[in-house]
């Protein structure tokens, strides 16, 4: 068993190292192949035309421009070597400078009509170019805000008619401001095919790669942002999206040839370094959150330093801006390299595939930086740098890693879902058993409730009819057969009504209050006349708001029970029945008599069935039931809302 585990561990580690080595070897091979291809092409072109025409640079000089910018100074020229940065010569100088390149052109007889090409790899920041005192090109804007040619290789074809056999002269006026490493880049003159190939190589390195980098960064950043929006717990995706956002803003500096709207070159440089500082900070947070590590103190320090450098870059005066820009760049570079080293230690501690793969990507950055620093140290400016390849490779690699992590998480989710499904099936079976028992108990409770409701209905409906019949028999000395049959029919109808009105489902609301009270009034008026009781019925001609059938049934039962109690116990001579609707859309039934009265608390404590029935019915629909009784005045009032609200 121990041997099997060791084998799996070794196999997994070997596969990880194999993938990482393949990625690295692929990057190196791409760069080497492109360099070899470019050098071979240039060497072939050079050998083909070498014996036809020769170009020789004689002198390269620079001088500050006079107040008349269009006039080339005659004195003060200094010999320089291109590429040139005039800030090492004229610190804090902002303005224009003239560069003069004197070169010699010799062709064999019959080859004088061959055109040549001129290439300037960069002009910092804007400029205007003359060949033999003839204007061949100028930037769109030579005044603030200046155009930006610092990362744009410029290429022109010089026709043979504009060239001299022997001495020729190139004049370039460069316009810049202090702190921007002002000057002129390398200048090349040669056969059109050769210079065109060099120009294409530079355009690919300085424009195409950066554009591809920007597009990939935008695409992956947007995808990561959407993942974070819909799944906030994926914090690494959120930091990666923010990191891509700042990197895209920083990359724009290498692509745009015009400054941002409403900004000058200095403001542009300030913002560009702020984006770089923010990029370094968000990159650290992304790497650490991806590896599930938190450095509380270190993160607070980095955040504070990010704010400090942002403030410095925004508010530093022009005289110290170059130092501030350089400091911010070195700080960002240091943080970047330190993070590349730190992730190696984190990957060693974590020993996870995705973290190890991310560490390999960041280790390749160290190799790329060392390679480009080596080219810079040897001043091999025409060699292909690896830095432009870093960002596309990074975006692809990190996106692959994040996709792999999502796939892994989905696998865990699927496994969890299977386990959850099995658990749910078990719990569902147990719940079905419990629900079945609960259902049986509910059925029993419903039966008991129906029996209780039936008891109340029999007492209030059929019981009231029996009491009325008994009272009529007591007050009649001689009862005829038709009267007895009428009593039995009345009892039969009341029994049917109890059965039919056991629920409000399917019940209809009378068209108006008069029709609602008609059956009740018909039953009790005859009895009141027999007992010499004067009754007054106060009702509206129509409903203001159509009541619920359950309300009509409840008020009918309350009225029937209250009138029955008056007949049985009150010994009253006057009865008033009223049904009104107040401003709050409540139905108010009020029954008043002038009988002997009773003690309300005593009757309630004695569990009077009729009184309890009335109270229960009214409260069941969310209404209020009130009783006031004394000798000579008893008031029963039932108030129900317009909309039904059943209560327990």
Automatic annotation (TrEMBL):
It catalyses: ATP + protein L-histidine = ADP + protein N-phospho-L-histidine. InterPro entries: Galactose-bd-like_sf, HATPase_C_sf, HATPase_dom, Sensor_HK_TwoCompSys. Residues 1-38 form the signal peptide. Residues 550-644 form the Histidine kinase/HSP90-like ATPase domain. CDD domains: HATPase_UhpB-NarQ-NarX-like. Residues 431-458 form a coiled coil. GO terms for molecular function: protein histidine kinase activity. The chain crosses the membrane at residues 209-230, 237-256, 271-290, 302-322, 328-348, 355-374, 386-406. Keywords: Coiled coil, Kinase, Membrane, Signal, Transferase, Transmembrane, Transmembrane helix, Two-component regulatory system. Its EC number is 2.7.13.3. GO terms for biological process: phosphorelay signal transduction system. It comes from the Bacteria. It is an enzyme of class 2 (transferase). It holds the Pfam family HATPase_c. PANTHER family: NITRATE/NITRITE SENSOR PROTEIN NARX-RELATED, NITRATE_NITRITE SENSOR PROTEIN NARQ. This is histidine kinase.
């Amino acid at each position: 068993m121990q041997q099997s585990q060791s084998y799996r561990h070794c196999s997994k580690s070997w596969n990880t190292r194999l993938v990482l080595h393949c990625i690295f070897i692929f990057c190196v091979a791409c760069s080497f192949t492109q360099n070899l291809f470019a050098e071979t092409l240039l060497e072939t072109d050079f050998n083909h035309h070498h014996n036809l025409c020769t170009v020789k640079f004689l002198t390269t000089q620079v001088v500050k421009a006079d107040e008349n910018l269009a006039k080339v100074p005659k004195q003060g020229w200094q010999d320089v070597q291109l590429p040139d940065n005039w800030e090492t010569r004229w610190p804090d100088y902002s303005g224009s400078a003239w560069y003069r390149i004197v070169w010699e052109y010799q062709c064999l007889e019959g080859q004088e009509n061959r055109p040549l090409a001129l290439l300037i790899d960069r002009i910092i920041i804007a400029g205007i170019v003359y060949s033999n005192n003839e204007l061949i090109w100028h930037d769109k804007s030579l005044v603030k805000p200046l155009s930006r040619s610092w990362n744009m290789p410029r290429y022109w074809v010089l026709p043979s008619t504009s060239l001299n056999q022997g001495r020729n002269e190139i004049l370039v006026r460069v316009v810049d401001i202090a702190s921007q490493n002002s000057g002129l880049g390398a200048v090349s003159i040669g056969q059109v095919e050769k210079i065109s190939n060099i120009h294409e190589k530079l355009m690919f390195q300085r424009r195409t790669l950066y554009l591809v980098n920007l597009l990939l960064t935008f695409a992956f950043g947007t995808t990561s942002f959407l993942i974070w929006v819909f799944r906030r717990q994926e914090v690494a995706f959120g930091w990666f999206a923010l990191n891509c956002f700042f990197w895209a803003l920083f990359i724009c500096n290498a692509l745009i040839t015009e400054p941002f709207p409403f900004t000058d070159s200095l403001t542009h440089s300030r913002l560009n370094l702020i984006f770089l500082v923010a990029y370094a900070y968000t990159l650290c947070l992304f790497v650490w959150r991806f590896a599930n590590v938190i450095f509380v103190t270190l993160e607070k320090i980095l955040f504070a330093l990010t704010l400090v450098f942002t403030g410095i870059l925004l508010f530093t005066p022009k005289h110290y801006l170059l130092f501030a820009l350089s400091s911010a760049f070195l700080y960002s570079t240091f943080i970047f390299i330190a993070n590349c080293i730190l992730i190696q230690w984190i990957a060693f501690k974590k020993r996870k595939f995705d973290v190890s793969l991310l560490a390999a990507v960041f280790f390749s950055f160290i190799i790329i930086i060392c390679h480009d620093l080596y080219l810079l140290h040897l001043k091999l400016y025409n060699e292909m740098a690896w830095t432009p390849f870093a960002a596309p490779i990074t975006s692809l690699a990190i996106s692959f890693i994040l996709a792999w992590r999502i796939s892994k998480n989905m696998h865990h989710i699927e496994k969890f879902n299977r386990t959850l499904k099995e658990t749910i099936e078990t719990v569902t079976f147990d719940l079905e058993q419990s629900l079945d028992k609960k259902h049986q108990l509910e059925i029993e409770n419903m039966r008991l409730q129906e029996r209780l409701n039936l008891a109340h209905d029999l007492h209030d409906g059929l019981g009231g009819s029996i009491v009325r019949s008994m009272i009529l028999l007591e007050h009649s000395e001689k009862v005829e057969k038709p009267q007895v049959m009428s009593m039995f029919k009345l009892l039969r109808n009341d029994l049917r009504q109890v059965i039919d009105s056991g629920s409000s489902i399917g019940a209809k609301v009378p068209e108006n209050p008069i029709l609602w009270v008609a059956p009740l009034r018909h039953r009790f008026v005859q009895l009141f006349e027999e007992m010499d009781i004067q009754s007054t019925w106060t009702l509206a001609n129509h409903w203001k708001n159509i009541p619920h059938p359950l309300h009509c049934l409840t008020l009918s039962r309350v009225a029937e029970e209250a009138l029955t109690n008056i007949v049985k116990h009150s010994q009253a001579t006057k009865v008033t029945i009223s049904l009104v609707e107040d401003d709050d859309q409540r139905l108010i039934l009020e029954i008043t008599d002038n009988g002997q009265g009773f003690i309300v608390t005593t009757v309630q404590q004695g569990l009077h069935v009729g009184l309890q029935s009335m109270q229960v019915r009214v409260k069941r629909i969310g209404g209020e039931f009130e009783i006031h009784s004394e000798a000579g005045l008893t008031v029963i009032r039932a108030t129900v809302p317009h909309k039904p609200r059943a209560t327990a």
